[in-house]
Amino acid sequence: MAKTLVVVESPAKAKTIEKYLGPDFAVRASFGHIRDLPKSDLGVDVDEGFTVTYEVPDDSKKHVAELKKAHKVSEELVLATDYDREGEAIAFHVATLLGVDPERAKRVTFTEITRDAILEAFAHPREIDLRLFDAQEARRVLDRLVGYKISPILWRRVRPGLSAGRVQSVAVRLIVEREREIRAFVPVEYWSVDVRLAPDGDEHAFLARLTQIPEGRLAASPDKKGIVLATEAETGTHAERLRRASYRVTKVERKERKRSPAPPFTTSTLQQEAARKLGFGARKTMSIAQRLYEGVDLPGEGTVGLITYMRTDSVNLAESALREIAGFIRTEYPSGYSLAEPRRYRTRARNAQEAHEAIRPTSVLRHPGRVGGALDRDQLRLYTLIWQRTVASQMAEARFNQVGVDIEASVDGLTYGLRATGQTLLFDGFIRVYREGRDEGPDEDAEARLPELEAEQLLRMLDVLPEQHFTQPPPRYTEASLVKTLEERGIGRPSTYASIISTIQDRGYVRLQDKRFFPEDVAEVVTDKLVEHFPDIVNVNFTAEMEEDLDEIAEGEMGRVQVLREFYDPFHEALERAEEKFERYVEELDEECPRCIEEGRTP
Description:
This protein folds into four domains: about 5-130, Rossmann fold, CATH 3.40.50.140; about 135-185 and about 475-600, Topoisomerase I, domain 2, CATH 1.10.460; about 190-260 and about 405-425 and about 455-470, Topoisomerase I, domain 3; about 265-390, Topoisomerase I, domain 4, CATH 1.10.290. Helix content is about 40%, strand content about 20%. It has helices at about 10-20, 60-70, 85-95, 115-125, 130-155, 170-185, 230-245, 265-280, 280-295, 320-330, 370, 375-390, 480-490, 495-505, 520-535, 540-555, 560-580, 595-600; strands at about 5-10, 25-30, 45, 50, 75-80, 105, 190-200, 205-215, 215, 245-260, 295-300, 300-305, 400-410, 415-425, 460-470, 510-515, 515-520. Strands 7-8-14-13-10-15 form a six-stranded antiparallel barrel. The protein is flat. The relative contact order is 0.14.
């Protein structure tokens, strides 16, 4: 009979941990949250200090019964749920349901599931952090108040089945506003001129961009400072002269440029990069990462956690990890690729909390090629991404030779200016292992080779290439760019990005088409109504400030009741006004909708 009952969230995590602890420990899973607010009632008494009523959901009753049975035959309880606010809340509720005072319960935390990390954590148990629990409960109460109070108004005045959410509605607003920017955008025509040139006696041709006309300096685009070539006729005049001009090099600049690697992954950057490089949605990324964290069976090792905890906004690496990575690079790569001192990064996201490490392999010695046979295809692709990014973060900078050439064209007593740029890779450094993906725009490291050129060198004109352009509207959000915006604006937390993106799709507010978010018509209607009647709820800055207040609860700087009261009083007033003034929306069905026709639906 095991003396100690250890409770974690999932069976996979339980299996891995039990292997390290031995026969005196029984490790059981709660299968996530085992208590929650009731489905059919608000569950919050706003007049009694926002007291919360919890219940055990039907699908958790079996798991609770099994935990109680295991607890009866155990001498001690240890709560080993995840090292974040949700994990702290699960620990609190498990202790409560098992009749253990949460303030006296033993709690252990770790950010990687390895033998050393588990044994170290169990050697230093602590108490449940009630401040973290209060912060989690405050978030849950805020979300319940907004959803439970606003959604019925939307059902009655707009359409049955709609929902509002404290964070989801802000995300929908971002997508709606971007769509309206795109609709309102008026493209502006502009032209560029490239000239294909080659040194006399050399067949190595290259392109130079026209940057100066006799009237002054050209703008790269209409939103930049300078003269804009706005029409084909105007551009044609200059192109005709350039075809008759003589060309000479006036200046050559050579300099070395260095590029540093991106930091190790946070939750946000992992979701962004997995979307760009692997085509994974945020939910899929987190599901796979969870499995890699909780443990995978490796031949000769048994069940091993392959990565550290995957819900984090930190870019820090543990000192032991830095030492292992440095040793690996020195062993596996030629001299020049390793660093004399570890490279350290600073987290830039608003409201970031750096209690955890970045997401990294638990050991870089587990090369993707070594563990690949134990992983399915998608697991291996994500693990490889994490492994490469981590190792690259501690490798030498890449070095490029960058060349800029100024060229003068003379014709009919007039002078034109052109510029050509090129670069070549001198030393690949970290790029040997990993190159960061991009959402928009060209690859900044793409090589463009120029011939050897010197000042006063004469050039031959081979062709003049005018090109028409139009200014572009801002791009629609991808999953990657939406997650990036949410993080930068301080909306949500690492644990919520994936659920935000899933929720706004599941609720029918937006659709993902060609990897871009498009708002449905109802999203625009609901957003406008919320902006009119509940401006704070869909205000990006207000939502970010609420996140900061929740952080202050977790840090003991503010009280849970204080934060909830400061939110609820003005919110309640807005609710009362909305009940009076929220006009019923009548859907206009006079004209046939093209989408309805395409899908076989009629008004």
